[in-house]
Design a protein that fits this description.
single chain; alpha/beta; six-stranded mixed β-sheet; five-stranded mixed β-sheet; 7 helices; 11 strands
Amino acid sequence: MLLAIDVGNSQISFGLGEASPSDPAAAPDASVWHSRWRLPTHLHRTSDELSVLVAALLELDGFAPESVDRVVMSSVVPALSPVIRATCQRLFGSELLQVGPGVRTGLALRYEPPASLGSDRLVDAVAARTRFGAPVVVVDFGTATTFNVVDGSGTFIGGAIAPGVGVAAAALAAAGARLSRIDLTPPREPHRLPLIGRNTEQSMRAGVLYGYAGLVDGLLRRIEASLDAAGEARPTVVATGGLAGAVAPLVGRFDQRVPDLILDGLRLIEALNRSSE
């Protein structure tokens, strides 16, 4: 089986499932993931500690480390990459494939310099283009909110990076002496989230969530207008990431929502590089 690992600034996401077929153009299928886990990202976590945690997660869902024969990783936290590598070597006895320079993705880039593009943004774009075609725009709601644009030819042409909604909420609480952290749990019925708060917590939730929805809506409108001016068709707009549930329902411009799109992209990239061996 394949273990896909996405190391983000706030969380490490794991997906355990079947390796992709040799045809990397095959669309991702959510059913291939038997288990998905998330751990908080801690810069000082050791490989010993992480080995215990990953082994426990595997055992909890009825899998042995020996069942994992392939590992692929995307990381935007360089300090943790060697820790993950040591963990995989210890548990699975094999090296992992890390998305980066020299790894085949099947996606053309128009980004300068190419090596500066975050691997998470690249992997999101690979998965979205394969699954939904092109043009496509992926909005990934994480520590940062990234807008990733693939044009009609299937080329990654860039995007935008904004502070994440969690970062914005934390900064507001830290800067206001009488303000506290607020709950960003996705509202069950977004249309019932008060726009005019009747207490401080409601007011902060309204300002952060509706304000952030306005930011996302405004950037998407401008991206779509830019693509239209270049003669592109209207792109499919996809929401993903751990905080998508808090904001995406308030925006109303998303065609698809795939919480763990990056795991699908990692699976596709692993298959593409395996087929070239």
